[in-house]
Amino acid sequence: MYSIGAVAKLTGISPYTLRYYDKVGLTPFVKRDAHGRREFDGAGIDSLALITCLKQTGMPLDEIRQFVSWCAEGDQTLGERLALFKEQRQAVAEQIHQSLLNLQKVDHKIATYQKAQQAGSEAAVDCDQIPLRNLNELLNEVQTYEVQKFPGK
Predict the structure, then answer these.
(1) What PROSITE patterns does its record include (predicted)?
(2) What CATH number is given to the structural domain containing 16?
(3) I want to staple 2 with a disulfide (CB 3.0 to 4.6 A). Which of 6, 65, 71, 119 is the partner?
(4) Which candidate, 35, 28, 30, 25, places its Cα nearest to that of 6?
(5) pLDDT tens digits, residue range 50-104?
C-alpha cells in the first residue's frame, strides 16, 4: 500500500490533486487506513495512470468519472467503455493532426529565419509559402524525434 505522498512522488500528481480526484469520485479504488488516511495499491496507481492519460488527451473530468463508474458496474458497460475510447481515439488523432500541421508551420518559420539570417534581411526571403509535406514525412519526423528523445524504447 502506498500513502498519498508516495503516490504523488511515483506519479507526479500532487497530493492536492489526488485529494481532489478522491473528492469528485474519480478514485473509488482508494481505501482508507484505520486513521482515515488514503491508501493506494498497485492497481490504484495503474488507474491513476489511465486517468492522467485521459486527462492529457483532453477528456473532461465528468467523462472520466463516467468511465470510472462504468468500470465499477462491470462487464455490462463494456460497450459504453469501448464507445468512449473510440471517440477519444478520434479526438487524439485530430489533436495529432493539428499538432503535425503546427509542427510544419514552425519548421517553415525556422527555415525562413535561417534563410533571412543568411541573407541579412527578412525582406530578402519569401516567407509566405509553406511547402506542404505529406503525412508520412511528418510522421517519420515524429518517429525520429521519439528515437532521439527515448533511445532504446
Answers:
(1) HTH_MERR_2
(2) 1.10.1660.10
(3) 6
(4) 30
(5) 999 999 999 999 999 999 999 999 999 999 999 999 999 999 999 988 888 888 8
Instruction: Kindly tell me the burial class for residue 149, based on how many C-beta atoms sit within 10 Å of its own C-beta (0-12, 13-18, 19 or more).
Output: exposed
Pairwise CA distance, residues 55 & 83, whole Å: 17
Out of 73, 89, 121, pick the residue that ends a domain. 73
Residues 9 and 23 placed together within one structural domain of the fold: yes
**Radius of gyration from C-alpha coordinates of the chain:** 22
pTM of the predicted model as reported, rounded to 2 decimal places: 0.72
Count how many domains the chain has. Answer: 2
Q: Which residues pair with 39 in a beta bridge?
A: 31
Supply the pLDDT for residue 136: 78
Q: Do 13 and 68 fall into the same domain?
A: yes
**Whose CA is closest to 65, among 4, 22, 31?**
22
